[in-house]
Amino acid sequence: TWLLIGSCVGVFLWEWSLGAAAQQAIFGYGLIPARLLQGAMLPPEIGTVPALLTVFTSMFLHGGWMHLIGNMLYLWIFSDNVEDAMGHGRFIVFYLLCGTGAAMAQALPDPSSAIPMVGASGAISGVLAAYLMLYPRARVTVVIPLGFYLHVTRLPAAAVLGLWFLLQLLSEMMSGAGAGVAFRAHIGGFVAGLLLVFAFVPKRR
Question: What is the maximum alpha-carbon separation in the chain?
C-alpha cells in the first residue's frame, strides 16, 4: 500500500515539474481507447510508451492535486486490511488486475475515444470491493455534511461501500459524453474486485 501511494505521489510530482508539458505526459502515458484498440497514432513530439503499457502507466498518473489526494485517501484507508488478508505479492497482482478491468470497462464501450484516462481510482475500486467482501461489518468513520454542520459517525463498511457503488452506477447513467470522471472504470474495477477477491486470499484466511 505504501509503495503504491509513494509511486502515485512521485509520478504526480514529476508531472507537476513538467509545467505546461504535463498535458503531453497525460496523452503519452494515459490510456487512450482509440490508441489501444484502434491503433491511432500520437504526434511524434509526444513521448510515449507502447499502447498496451498505458493500461498500467495510466494508473499512476493523476489530473490534479484533488484527484491525487482523494484517491490516495481511499487507498490509505481501505488497502492495508486487504493487503493483510492477501499478502504483499498477491495484493499487487490483484490491484493491477482490477486496474486492468477498470481500463477495459472504460475503453471497450467507446473504442474510438481520444480522451486519455488517468488515475488510480479504477484499481482502488477493486480494493473497495475486496474490503466489502472481507470486512462487511467493519465500522468506517464518515463525515456527513448537514448544511454548515459536519456530522461525524461510524457506519458499517457494507453500507458505505454499497452506497458508493450505487452512486457510481447512477452517475454513469446520468453523465453525458466526455464526462470528466471515468465512472465506467470505477464500476469495472469494482466488479473485477468482486470476482477476483477470494482467488487472492489464502484459504487459511
Answer: 52
Please, are residues 30 and 116 in contact by the beta-carbon 8 Å criterion? yes
CA 111 to chain centre: 19
What is the C-alpha separation between 72 and 8, in angstroms, rounded? 8
Cα angle 41, 42, 46 (rounded to 5 degrees) comes to: 150
Q: Give the model confidence (pLDDT) of 139-169 as tens digits.
A: 888 888 887 888 888 888 888 888 888 888 8
What backbone phi and psi angles, to 5 degrees, belong to 154? -120, 125
Banded model confidence at residue 195, pLDDT cuts 50, 70, 90: very high
Closest C-alpha to 156, from 142, 144, 166, 169: 142
The reported pTM is 0.88
